[in-house]
Every structure is written in structure tokens, then in C-alpha cells.
Amino acid sequence: MRAENTGPVDRTMDVETQLRALLRDVLALSQERVDGFDADTQLFGALPELDSMAVAGLLTEMEDCFDILIEDDDIDGDTFETFGTLVAFAEAKVGN
Q: What is the reported pTM?
């Protein structure tokens, strides 16, 4: 599923807020569910919706939304461990 906001993110827009929208749209989660995510919320392995195919889709959406390039070497086991690690990854990529 394609995220609603398909253009590059406004740099003033909060990365965390945008990631919540991407997770909601790509994984077909409810807004209430993603609003409840905090930095310690487990993602990969804890969300049945977030399988390897969904990870690939989410990475593509992140590239489009944040106008970044994510290389295979950028991703490791920690990237999708928690919502906090995903936000930190995205903020680091956007800041580069």
C-alpha cells in the first residue's frame, strides 16, 4: 500500500510523525495503534504485519518520503528492532 504523502517530506516536519504515517499506511495499522508507539515499542518480530516484504516496502516509502537513498549496507538487525531505533535511523539519514 502506498503512503498518502508521496512527496519529499518538509524538513520542518517531524520525522517521527512521518514515520508513524508510513507505518500506518504501509502496514495497514490503525492510527490509534501507531499513536501508541513509543521509543521502546518492538517492531520486527513483534508486529505480524512487519514481515520481510513489508520492510522492503517501508524502506521504499521512506526513500520517497524523506528524499533519501537507503543502501543495503545501511540496514542491520537493529534498524527495525524498535520504533525508537527506526526513528533514529531515519533522522540520521535525513540529516546526511
A: 0.84
